Amino acid sequence: MWDNHKALKGLADVLLFASLLMVLYASGFWVTHAPVFPVKRIQISGHMKRVTPEQLRFIAEHELSGTFFTLDIDKTRAAFGKLPWVRDAQVRRRWPDTLDIEVDEHVALARWGENGLVSVRGEWFDAASDEALPVLSGPAGSQKEMSLMLEKFREELGVSGLKPATVWLSDRRAWRLGLDNGIRLELGRGEVESRVARFASHWKETLAALPYHIEYVDMRYPNGFAVRMPDYRAPAASGKK
User: Fold this and answer.
1) Residue 97 neighbours by CB distance under 10 Å
2) Domain check: are 124 and 49 in the same one?
3) What digits encode the pLDDT tens for the residues 89-121?
4) Structural domain boundaries enclosing 168
5) Are 9 and 53 within one domain?
6) Cα–Cα–Cα angle for 200, 122, 82, rounded to 5 degrees
7) Which DSSP symbol is given to 160?
8) Is 217 buried (19+), middle (13-18) or exposed (0-12) by CB count in 10 A?
9) Are residues 141 and 224 in the same domain?
10) 73 lies in a domain?
């Protein structure tokens, strides 16, 4: 082999190429990991009402590590996603030293029983709020369906001036609606929107005019409804002489 000039030249070329690759790799590694390329600025945008600057600053100071090139984008997104009111965070590098973070915040629609909140997108999230919100109670995984139905109930109740306070959905798919004036509507299964609309159409002129406390209204009748009034007493029948 040592007498074969072509083989020696080929080996030399291979070694030279390998050396160049090693130099390029080392240079690239140094460039991407060198402290001369730190992230100097973090630009945060998004319409935020619940996420505070202090929370964002804490994440930036304690969770983010690496240079402009080595900072893990997915890990950074996950770090900001730990904040209770953050639904999502989009992270982008901007040359030469800036990290752009766009925060998408949850907007609460209702409470989910006693455990967390449901957003306007029908997503459950674990956060606290002192806002007066309706309460949803139903089977696991029904948050999206119930949030959509809550909006429909609000629309159907518009003419009555009443608002949903509590919405229940049973395992058998039966609906019950609690109103902000304390009245409960039994809606059952199927055609629940039309039943709420029928109640709303009779509320002001008929039900609200009754001189009794109304506990609940059963709307499961096809052409009418039944009213439970605990303090109502039927007049005694008068006998004829």
Assistant:
1) 13
2) no
3) 998 988 888 889 899 999 999 999 999 999 999
4) 108-228
5) no
6) 145
7) G
8) buried
9) yes
10) yes
Residues 48 and 1 in one domain: no
Which residues touch 62 (CB under 8 Å, ≥6 apart)? none
Q: Does 3 fall in a domain?
A: yes
CA distances from 61 to 65, 87, 93 (A): 9, 21, 17
Which are the contacts of 127, defined by CB distance < 8 A and separation ≥ 6? 50, 84, 85, 106, 108, 116, 117
36-83: per-residue pLDDT in tens? 568 788 888 888 899 988 888 888 778 887 787 788 889 988 998 889
Please tell me whether residues 152 and 219 are part of one structural domain: yes
Q: Beta-carbon neighbour count of residue 165 at 10 Å?
A: 17
If you write DSSP's letter for every residue of 201-226 in order, what string do you get? HHIIIIITTSSS---EEE--SSS--E
pTM, entire model: 0.78
How crowded is the C-beta side of 12, counted as CA atoms within 13 Å?
A: 8
Residues 6+ apart with CB under 8 A from 5: none
